[in-house]
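::Encoded backbone::
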Amino acid sequence: MSRRIFPWHARPGLAGGIDKDGSRAAELLAHGFGSVEVGSVWPEHAASVAATLAGGMASRGGAVGLGLGLPADLPEDSLTVAWLAGLAALWPVADYLSFNLSAAANRRFLLPEHRCRLARACRAAVGQRDGRAAASGRYLPLALKLPLGGVGDPLPAAAEIAAAAGFDLLTVVLPEAAGRFARLAELAGQLAGGPALVAVGGIRSAADVAAARAAGAAGVQVHRLFVEQGAACLDSLLCSPGGERSKAPCQPSTVR
């Protein structure tokens, strides 16, 4: 069982990269996706994206996640400062905040020599989030996005680091090789009782959605399938083997 259940996971979500600045969030949610992840957003652009999103908060259905990225030239010692700055700027408008370490430029923070640095940054982000929640009554779920790695590789240590710090979600980029769902199940078993898992990468059908959920994922995201098919991709993701389209409602945010 995961630590928390998020209603928007009942339907497929859109991964980051489709809406890069928040201007399309309401439009994309209107198609029926459970969530839309905006970004990735660099900390220095976070205030502008927050302003774009603020105007449509009252009317949007589903959840708007914010993916926080990092510049390739960010000094390694600045990880915590960058994350806290992004959290402070995006906190008022995000239904969840995802710290993206799956991008090539950011994967350096997954290396063994940066584990202590990553742990400090994760704990600091949770501490700031918890402080804001205590003061305002509004709880912001935090996610870490990371590659799951190849079949046969050690499971990513960053997943355990984020779980230990108190992150609510892990967005895991599945490998392309066969056995990817078995690897997802291995991570789910290792982190039983920990963060909710969201699978992204190669999800192209209702069978893939079912396999990801059976392996322990609470939710799924798509990117390439939407680029290829647009909103029509929901039909292939939601249709049951018998051909019926799922009637799971598009849930509005409950963390606001």
Observations:
- The radius of gyration is 17 Å.
